[in-house]
């Protein structure tokens, strides 16, 4: 049958279905973007759509995002401050850039960054498990010192005896007897990046770039209490809801559960 021979009602009916589908897709993309806290780009939105049974091209997603004015926070340039002091310890780079680990809690990396609380700088410390990029410990406070790192360890919900190696850059806040005693108590070995070599702590650097973009940039907290509450909320979202490209678009929780099931199946 020629197109000209189609009943007009059929043509309008099919056009209406396409319009409804387009509207539904647009609403879904907007919702996914907003639920991601204005973070997800085209690839992650595509993965979330696939989970809900939609097969959509990156080009189409990009077009809809542009039409709806959806701009990811990652399009904003970030200022990257330099560290002022250096830890001159003779401890070497035991990790040796072996960032892919096959065992939970085998290697934990850490770094610090700053955030504005009213008119002053406060600081955030996180501990990241290289196995699944989970933030296993964190702390925040007005002082950039070893106590901040120690409190991050105190927040870890896992048995610290399971940790095998703690790797950081050579920031002076990581050189302190308080930290050394904690590591010695739980039998955790130490590893430091080589001086002036940020790639030796690339995962922690990447994680903090993520935190700066998603949590810190453009925000001013009214109090330390507000910072603590919002950091708690962000860490929970980061570990249990946010999908990670480095984890094949799974959350840290999903990645761990998937591989745990796989190990149990093999056994």
Could you explain how this protein is built, in words?
By secondary structure, this protein is of the alpha/beta class. It has helices at residues 8-35, 42-51, 58-67, 146-154, 177-185, 202-216, 224-240, 252-266; strands at residues 107-117, 120-129, 135-141, 165-168, 189-192, 220-221. The chain is elongated.
Supply the key terms.
elongated; alpha/beta; 8 helices; single chain; 6-stranded mixed sheet; 267 residues
Concise summary:
With 267 residues, the protein is an alpha/beta fold. Helix content is 42%, strand content 14%. It contains 8 helices and 6 strands, in the order αααβββαβαβαβαα.
Fold blueprint:
Layout: H1 8-35, H2 42-51, H3 58-67, E1 107-117, E2 120-129, E3 135-141, H4 146-154, E4 165-168, H5 177-185, E5 189-192, H6 202-216, E6 220-221, H7 224-240, H8 252-266
Parallel strand pairs: 1-4, 1-6, 4-5
Antiparallel strand pairs: 1-2, 2-3
Helix pairs in contact: 2-3
Number of helices: 8
Describe the global form: elongated
Structural class: alpha/beta
Q: Provide the helix percentage.
A: 40-55%
Strand fraction equals: 5-15%
Mean pLDDT: 85
What distance lies between the first and last C-alpha atoms, to the nearest angstrom?
61 Å
Largest sheet: 6 strands, mixed
Low-confidence stretches: none
Helix/strand order? HHHEEEHEHEHEHH
| Gyration radius, in Å | 23 Å
Number of strands: 6
């Amino acid at each position: 049958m020629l197109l000209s021979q189609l009943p007009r009602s059929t043509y309008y009916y099919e056009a209406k279905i396409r319009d409804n589908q387009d509207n539904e897709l647009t609403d879904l993309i907007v919702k996914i973007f907003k639920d991601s806290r204005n973070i997800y780009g085209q690839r992650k939105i595509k993965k979330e759509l696939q989970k809900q049974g939609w097969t959509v091209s990156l080009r189409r997603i990009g077009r809809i995002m542009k039409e709806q004015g959806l701009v990811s926070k990652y399009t904003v340039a970030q200022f990257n401050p330099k560290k002022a002091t250096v830890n001159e310890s003779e401890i070497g780079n035991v990790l040796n850039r072996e960032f892919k680990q096959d065992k939970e809690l085998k290697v934990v990396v850490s770094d610090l960054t700053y955030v504005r609380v009213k008119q002053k700088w406060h600081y955030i410390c996180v501990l990241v498990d290289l196995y699944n990029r989970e933030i296993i410990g964190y702390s925040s406070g007005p002082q950039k010192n070893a106590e901040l790192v120690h409190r991050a360890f105190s927040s870890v919900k896992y048995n610290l005896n399971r940790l095998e190696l703690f790797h950081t850059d050579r920031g002076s806040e990581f050189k302190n007897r308080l930290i050394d005693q904690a590591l010695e108590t739980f039998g955790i070995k130490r590893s430091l990046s080589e001086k002036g070599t940020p790639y030796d702590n690339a995962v922690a650097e990447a994680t903090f770039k993520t935190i700066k973009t998603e949590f810190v940039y453009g925000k001013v907290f009214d109090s330390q209490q507000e910072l603590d509450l919002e950091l708690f909320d962000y860490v929970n979202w980061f570990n249990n809801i946010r999908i990670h490209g480095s984890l094949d678009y799974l959350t840290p929780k999903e990645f761990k559960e998937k591989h745990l099931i796989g190990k149990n199946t093999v056994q």
